[in-house]
Write a structure and sequence with these properties.
Number of strands: 9
Number of helices: 8
Structural class: alpha/beta
Order of helices and strands: EHEEEHEHEHEHHEEHH
Shape: elongated
Strand content: 15-25%
Strand order of the largest sheet: 2-1-6-5-7
Low-confidence stretches: none
Length: 242
């Protein structure tokens, strides 16, 4: 088991998720290094059941879209009180709504969020949520990709993992994080390990040369080539930002 250093009195990074399905959590967030880090109080996870703020005997949380259309929409008079209550639990965390139309989740954004006190995440369902909640509560919309899921719970888990793994002590040394995909604006270079020869394929000789400068140059070239082939948009973004 990995050894996690003391937090030196610092409060744990806190994730609070508003959801209709709290039983989905912690799920994969409680295994391996993330689970160990949570046990060590480097970060914490809480859920808030949206239906607790539902209306009437049946705790109604949704209704038909104004103007007509398919599906159901989560009500403003349910989500508003739920978010207000969340604010009392985690007053300093940004409130984020997981939405396909949101700002793309990037490594840079995950790092920014990891450096704060935590996040309060609203996991929507059905056709989405009443726009007035987004406007009134100042929700930041974040998307994990150009596709649609049945709900925001899995997206919330993705965002939490992307942030938690960046917390000090969770993955170890800063060097391993610095060489990852997207940290430098490039995709990560290919990795190899033993055995030296496998199925007729060998580790590139340069990686076994012991020449650290040449290894670094080879890795840089590989990263640039992979990025040009697979994500040329990243190269354009990197050049524009310089």
């Amino acid at each position: 088991m990995a050894h996690f250093p003391s937090n030196d009195g610092r409060p744990a990074w806190r994730a609070l998720v508003l959801t209709l399905f709290p039983e989905m959590f912690p799920g994969p967030l409680d295994v391996s290094l993330l689970g160990q880090a949570r046990a060590a109080n480097i970060w914490s996870l809480d859920t808030l059941q949206i239906r607790d703020f539902g209306l009437g005997r049946h705790r109604q949380v949704d209704d038909t879209p104004a103007g007509g259309g398919a599906g159901m929409v989560l009500r403003a008079d349910v989500l508003g009180p739920a978010l207000d209550h969340a604010k009392t639990i985690s007053p300093d965390s940004p409130h984020i709504y997981l939405s396909p139309r949101g700002t793309p989740l990037t490594q840079s954004l995950a790092r920014d969020l990891s450096e704060g006190p935590g996040v309060t995440l609203l996991a929507g369902r059905f056709e989405g949520i009443d726009q007035r909640v987004i406007d009134d509560k100042g929700l930041k919309e974040i998307s994990i990709g150009d596709y649609v899921l049945a709900g925001g719970e899995l997206a919330a888990m993705v965002l939490i993992e992307a942030c938690v793994r960046l917390l000090p002590g969770v993955l170890g040394g800063a060097e391993s994080l610095a060489s990852e995909s997207f940290e430098t604006g490039l995709l990560e270079y290919p990795q190899y390990t033993k055995p030296r020869d496998w199925e007729g394929l060998s580790i590139p000789d340069i990686l076994l040369s012991g020449d650290h400068k040449k290894v670094a140059e080879w890795r840089r070239r590989q990263s640039e080539q992979l990025t040009a082939d697979r994500r040329p948009d990243l190269l354009r973004t990197t050049r524009t930002s310089k």
